[in-house]
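User: Please fill in residues for this 289-position structure.
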């Protein structure tokens, strides 16, 4: 069986439904308030959510694969069906949500001949959840894609606007990758997950790479394969760092909703630990000033 989620835009929904009905699906009742529509036939279920996600759940047959591919083509799943012969450069980060450790920026290059191999590899990887096979996926990715990682330490974040700092580092990382791989004249699509980039920075990037397609949008890792891969790689590096820290300290997850993390922070002098991000600490929880 295969099961995975695809995001879509509203304008694609009528065409998606038409294809589903042409394959003799029957509409069945939805099961909760989050579901918009649900269709089923003997070995294939399609659930369409109000969040503009479609879940495909089907047995692995040629006919089912063909239908899944048709739906992927309609929504341009992960931006791979419109790519043609361009290089795909994706940028994403991991680590803003945890109070401990670096923020890891990643810039990854996907070559067109590897797009569909990579699609199958990352199909069910959701970096927003705990990924059990993350190391295995990363080890395969690292043999296929070129990438560069740039960590931002908590010390670099002190007394700086984080979004401005990240924008500067993203540009530094992008320039480094393009220069080192001699991609200046290559046809490219550059996709950046928008973490709150200032409008002037967006305009600067688009002007600098005016001969290329530039996409800067929130949740780009859900929509474009190059950003999804950058997200996976940055997540792997962040997880490795946190695993090392947890061997030394009882940190919990690092999320400020985690009781174990909060209790550990209350019991220590924050100034003694250089891996604690400065802007995350509430004044009432701080020891040592």
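Assistant: Residues filled in for all 289 positions:
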């Amino acid at each position: 069986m295969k099961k995975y989620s695809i995001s879509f835009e509203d304008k694609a929904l009528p065409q998606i439904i038409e294809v589903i009905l042409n394959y003799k699906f029957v509409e069945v009742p939805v099961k909760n308030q989050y579901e918009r529509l649900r269709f089923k036939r003997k070995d294939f279920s399609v659930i369409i959510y109000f969040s503009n996600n479609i879940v495909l759940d089907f047995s692995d047959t040629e006919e089912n694969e063909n239908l899944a591919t048709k739906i992927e083509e309609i929504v341009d799943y992960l931006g791979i069906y419109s790519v043609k012969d361009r290089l795909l450069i994706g940028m994403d980060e991991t680590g803003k949500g945890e109070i401990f450790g670096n923020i890891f920026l990643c810039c990854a290059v996907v070559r067109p001949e590897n797009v569909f191999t990579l699609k199958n590899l990352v199909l069910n990887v959701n970096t927003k959840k705990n990924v059990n096979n993350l190391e295995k996926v990363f080890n395969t990715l690292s043999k296929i894609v070129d990438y560069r990682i740039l960590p931002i330490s908590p010390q670099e974040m002190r007394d700086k606007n984080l979004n401005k700092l990240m924008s500067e580092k993203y540009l530094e990382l992008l320039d480094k990758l393009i220069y080192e791989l001699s991609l200046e004249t290559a046809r490219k699509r550059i996709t950046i997950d928008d973490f709150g980039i200032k409008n002037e920075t967006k305009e600067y990037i688009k002007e600098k790479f005016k001969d290329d397609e530039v996409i800067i949008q929130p949740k780009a890792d859900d929509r474009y394969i190059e950003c999804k891969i950058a997200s996976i790689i940055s997540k792997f590096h962040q997880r490795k760092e946190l695993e090392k820290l947890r061997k030394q300290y009882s940190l919990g997850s690092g999320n400020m909703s985690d009781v174990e993390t909060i209790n550990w922070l209350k019991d220590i002098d924050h100034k003694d630990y250089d891996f604690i991000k400065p802007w995350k600490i509430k004044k009432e929880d701080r020891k040592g000033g």
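For context: The CA atoms of residues 25 and 40 lie 5 Å apart.
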